[in-house]
Amino acid sequence: MWKSVPSEQTNGWQRQWFGNELDPAAVFNVRGVGIREPMFNADVHRPNGTGDWLIMFFHERVRLQRGQKEPSAVANSLMLWPPGAEQFYSWSRAANIEPHSWMHVEGMWVATQIEENRLPLEVPVTIRDESLVINILHQLMNEMTQNEVADPIILQNLFQNWARSLARFLQTRDPQHRIPPALLKVRDHLNEHFTELTPLDELAQIACMSRSHLSHQFREHFGTTISSYVIRKRMSIAQRLLYDLSVRPGEIAKRVGYPDIYQFSKQFKKTFAVCPSEYRKQLIAKREVR
């Protein structure tokens, strides 16, 4: 794995590695961040990926196709590689001078945000304003390094806000991807009444469309079903409440719409691979270690 490099040895670029071991049950981990790091190797080829999510921004033209001598992507190209996906990238002119910025992240939270925001995978996307990428990398780096204990909720919020900002940018570039106002009304209603089970007929009335058309359009624009969207909303809030040790799991269940703590625990484990009590124990353990 990559080693962290003292800032005085980098001439302005940064690289920090936070851990070597993959955590299959992770909700969200920041494993490493690099900002404007020179591309040292002529070719980087990982047939099986890195086991985590690699999100990389190339400040200059880059080769992303094996066997091709000329650059295949323009400057300011962003690539998202999911776990297990083949990775290939290479500088186009010479080593040590062409910068790239990146983050290695893992966990269900990453997959959820990328899926909900329908971010493109394994294809280069041009981002004219590099601050859209650089800012999030600095924010993640600062939270991981400048606090005695990195706050997992802050880290998740930072990544979620970035994913949503990126999705908004992509929708602005392509009017076909803009979300219809009727669907935004439905989403706003779900966000406000997530503790309730709003009948599909009522949602269809809000959107002024048929039940089947609403279900299809919702999935088309948000990348998930209506019921799954509500569940994710509930689980996201429950996860944050578990970070507050003064709130009992039974109370959390009620706050997110589950009158039965067993139903809540079952859904939480299905979402995060651990039950609420175990998740809270992991949070406590991390606090004590650090």
Quick structural gist:
By secondary structure, this protein is α+β, with helices and mostly antiparallel strands.
Structural class: alpha+beta
Number of contiguous helices: 10
The strands making up the biggest β-sheet line up spatially as 1-2-8-4-6-9
β content, as a range?
A: 15-25%
Q: Mind describing the biggest β-sheet?
A: 6 strands, antiparallel
Round the mean pLDDT to the nearest integer and report it: 85
**What is the H level of CATH, i.e. the homologous superfamily of the largest domain?**
Regulatory protein AraC
CATH architecture of the largest domain: Sandwich
Order of helices and strands: EEEEEEEEHEHHHHHHHHH
Number of domains: 2
Q: In total, how many beta strands? A: 9
Question: What's the end-to-end separation, in Å?
Answer: 22 Å
CATH topology of the largest domain, which one?
Jelly Rolls
Which regions are unreliable across 5 or more consecutive residues at pLDDT < 50? none
| Overall morphology | globular
How would you sum up this structure, described in words?
- There is one protein chain.
- With 290 residues, the protein is an alpha+beta fold.
- It has 2 domains: 7-173, Regulatory protein AraC (Jelly Rolls), CATH 2.60.120; 176-289, Arc Repressor Mutant, subunit A, CATH 1.10.10.
- The protein has helices at 108-116, 131-145, 152-173, 181-192, 200-207, 211-222, 226-242, 249-255, 261-272, 276-289; strands at 14-17, 29-38, 44-46, 53-58, 62-63, 77-81, 87-91, 99-106, 125-126.
- The longest helix is centred in the middle third of the chain and has 22 residues, at 152-173.
- It is globular and about 60 Å long.
